[in-house]
Amino acid sequence: MKNFLTLFFLTFLTTPLFAQWSIDVEPGIAIQGYNEIRIPDEGGTLFDFNQDFNLQGPVIPIRLRLGFTFGERNHIFALYAPLGLRYDGAAPRTIDFENSTFPQGNNIDGYYQFNSYRLTYRRDLVRNDRWIVGVGFTGKIRDAVVRLRDESSYDFNDDVGFVPLIHLYTEYKLPKWSLYLEGDGLAAPQGRAFDFLVGGKGKIAPNLDLKAGYRVLEGGASNDTVYNFTIVNFGVVGLIYTL
User: Fold this and answer.
1) Per-residue pLDDT at 18
2) Is residue 127 part of a domain?
3) For 124, which of 73, 144, 215, 233 could close a Cys bridge (C-beta 3.0–4.6 Å)?
4) Residue 94 belongs to a domain with what CATH number?
């Protein structure tokens, strides 16, 4: 029995009909929307990085995703999605942040990081000549940092945590390319997280697809220690290579 299972899995992983690897590289130009922060939530000063300071740009993060498809309808993805935004400008008001006070008028060097590491499983419920519709689950590790610095003070808040998300995928096939929507999202009383791409993709070589579209990253949390809600819009162009 053991030898049979070993043979089965080796055959399963090496047969193109049942298994396929993909590498998805996605650069994108980030356009900051609101980025509201108050740390701590009680006693801190509410400020908006985007409204109160200047975003240093252009910001062009690159996402990397490794995919594995088996049984045609099953997909596993491992994603690394870094995001770092830098800001500067004079403080429009006195800002109490963490354990420090940044007086009004002081030049502020600000930094906002929201790196994401995700593992996703998706199952295609519909798969035919025109449509692919799939649902799944994503386990996300967020690595978030907020930093402020002026001439005399420096303080930061960092947070690493696990977030469960629902994964959705819909694709409509045209003769030479496809329209699709893909992303992760979930909302709860403590906060929310949404990351969705709407765009198109088409084959430019036997094993290579070109994709382009609009991505929105939105969400945040409100609890005893942190209040932070942000939205970042992306114009993206990328390549998907299948093995």
Assistant:
1) 61
2) yes
3) 73
4) 2.40.128.90
Amino acid at 114: F
Q: Which residue's structure tokens are 């382009």?
A: 212
Residue 12 counted as domain residue: no
Q: Which residues contact 37 (CB under 8 A, 6 or more apart)?
A: 46, 47, 48, 49, 97, 112, 146, 227, 228
pTM of the shown model: 0.89
CA–centroid distance for 202 within its chain: 23
Which pLDDT score, from 0 to 100, does residue 17 have?
54
Cα distance between residue 84 and residue 68, in whole Å: 28
Are 19 and 242 in contact, with CB atoms under 8 Å apart?
no
Average pLDDT on 132-148 reads 98
State the total domains in the chain: 1
> Which has more pLDDT, 7 or 59?
59
Take residue 236 and report the two structure tokens written for it. 């993206």
Residue 9 domain flag = no
DSSP one-letter string for 190-218? TEEEEEEEEEEEEEEETTEEEEEEEEEEE
Separation between Cα atoms, residue 243 and residue 231, nearest integer Å: 34
Rounded to an integer, what distance in angstroms lies between the CA atom of residue 243 and that of residue 93? 54
In a domain, 152, yes or no: yes
